[in-house]
Amino acid sequence: xxxxxxxxxxxxxxxxxxxxxxxxxxxxxxxxxxxxxxxxxxxxxxxxxxxxxxxxxxxxxxxxxxxxxxxxxxxxxxxxxxxxxxxxxxxxxxxxxxxxxxxxxxxxxxxxxxxxxxxxxxxxxxxxxxxxxxxxxxxxxxxxxxxxxxxxxxxxxxxxxxxxxxxxxxxxxxxxxxxxxxxxxxxxxxxxxxxxxxxxxxxxxxxxxxxxxxxxxxxxxxxxxxxxxxxx
Length: 232
Prior knowledge:
The protein has helices spanning 23-30, 41-56, 62-73, 95-106, 154-179, 194-231, and strands spanning 2-5, 18-20, 36-38, 76-81, 88-93, 120-122, 124-133, 136-146. The chain has 232 residues and is of the alpha+beta class.
């Protein structure tokens, strides 16, 4: 089904875009979290009108773009976001966030699709490149700081990033060990390791082997009894 994203959704699209998704994904994930709304004809028409108005406010000539670039080189964007102790964000700063902040602080409209950076997921200092017009590119200084706190120094940022790498490396052996349990017995409800599966297979085979071992004395005894009867 077609939906209109009300927020940027990673790997799906940007806010305001009309995207096609599975109906179950929309109803069970996007709608309950208010990440999207149904793309009714009226809402789509309203969205197109709004996008057209915004497009008129973007640079249309090299001269306009250069004027905007001059303004943005003097601009410092600042975002205060929730972050963990190692600097990882609880969420991310997206290109839509950056475009909105430029409009809010400078009343300059830029196309978020021309903001050449991935979603920012760590606190830190960033230079965000933006293509304003053909041949006109500007980098906007952007600070992503922890909510309610001061911006850490470069040394502190490096230490926090190193701490996060150490945590990831420490967790790596656990993740690697989990790979061993990728064997799935289709008749079972739990995952088992290849080694355990082999042991179970041996255990299943053991009764047959035992039967083969115990059956032989029985038929041999019967045969000997039959010979004794013949001799008498």
